[in-house]
């Protein structure tokens, strides 16, 4: 579990607190709950106000549970969490509107003319701003994560170590390196295995900790379908695999790493 996992989980749970507050507000209201900020529903327009408010409360409760679930999933698999989050925020908002309209039509009093007046009990502006801000933050985080996660790792040779700058990046001391080799196969051909704490993004990008049937516990910074693949065998630590989008650049990096180790 990394800082990114925890940070996304916290964002999801903060959002769930906002929507949960709306749900509780709906359950406890004496007057009919409204959906749109700046509008109000007259008591005369609703046939059964307690039932109408409960329906609204359950609608927001289900939405809140989706946010909570997304936060829990982010602790184990960021990609699945992000997909669920996007579904909740985009089509989920449309579903909210549809469900609310059905609730309103179900409990609408057809014996009086419907009127939406200027609200004297408006949705608190802080809640509206909070919802917009949280959704905006979520989309920014998703964009940054996908961009950062899809980038090739930046590998730098230092005086006594190899530094890999990337999601799940590390520093590898020369003293722990047993061998550096260039494997002709892609990581898919070598055997990726099961992700234990890592990133599996779009386009076959794999970063982080994996458990392979053939290689054991490994650390990946690879394009899964790109070959060749650099393998860094480490003494009593997880072996590291690196492959870049450009096969030629992977070969150049291998030569650089190999020559640097030999010179030390």
Plain-language structure description:
There is one protein chain. With 264 residues, the protein is α+β, with helices and mostly antiparallel strands. The protein has two domains: 148 residues; 110 residues, no CATH class. Helix content is 48%, strand content 20%. It is built from seven helices and nine strands. The strands form two sheets. It has a six-stranded mixed beta sheet with strand order 4-8-9-7-6-5, covered by helices on one side. Strands 1-2-3 form a three-stranded antiparallel beta sheet, with helices on one face. α3 runs antiparallel to α5. The radius of gyration is 26 Å and the shape is rod-shaped. About 3% of the residues have low confidence.
Short key terms for the protein model shown above:
single chain, rod-shaped, 264 residues, alpha+beta, 2 domains, 20% strand, three-stranded antiparallel sheet
The share of residues in helices is: 40-55%
% residues in beta strands: 15-25%
Distance between the termini: 34 Å
Number of domains: 2
- In spatial order, strands of the major sheet run 4-8-9-7-6-5
Unreliable residue runs: 116-123
Total DSSP helices: 7
Using DSSP, what is the number of strands? 9
Based on CA atoms alone, the radius of gyration comes out at 26 Å
Structural class: alpha+beta
Order of helices and strands: HHHHHEEEEHEEEEEH
Average pLDDT: 83
Based on CA inertia axes, which overall geometry fits? rod-shaped
For the sheet with most strands, the description reads: 6 strands, mixed
């Amino acid at each position: 579990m990394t800082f990114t996992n925890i940070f996304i989980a916290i964002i999801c749970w903060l959002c769930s607190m906002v929507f949960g507050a709306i749900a509780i507000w709906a359950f406890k209201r004496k007057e009919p709950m409204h959906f749109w900020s700046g509008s109000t529903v007259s008591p005369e327009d609703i046939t059964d106000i307690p039932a109408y408010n409960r329906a609204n409360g359950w609608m927001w409760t289900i939405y809140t549970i989706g946010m909570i679930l997304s936060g829990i999933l982010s602790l184990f698999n960021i990609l699945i969490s992000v997909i669920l989050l996007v579904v909740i925020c985009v089509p989920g908002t449309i579903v909210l509107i549809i469900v609310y309209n059905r609730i309103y039509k179900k409990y609408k009093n057809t014996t009086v003319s419907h009127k939406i007046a200027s609200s004297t009990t408006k949705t608190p502006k802080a809640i509206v701003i909070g919802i917009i801000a949280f959704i905006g933050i979520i989309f920014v985080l998703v964009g940054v994560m996908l961009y950062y996660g899809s980038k090739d790792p930046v590998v730098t040779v230092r005086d006594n170590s190899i530094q890999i700058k990337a999601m799940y990046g590390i520093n590898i001391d020369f003293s722990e390196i047993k061998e550096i080799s260039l494997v002709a196969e892609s990581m898919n051909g070598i055997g990726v295995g099961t992700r234990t704490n890592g990133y599996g993004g779009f386009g076959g990008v794999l970063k982080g900790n994996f458990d392979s049937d053939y290689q054991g516990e490994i650390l990946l910074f690879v394009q899964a379908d790109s070959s060749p693949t650099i393998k860094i065998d480490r003494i009593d630590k997880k072996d590291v695999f690196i492959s870049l989008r450009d096969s030629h650049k992977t070969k150049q990096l291998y030569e650089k790493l190999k020559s640097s180790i030999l010179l030390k």
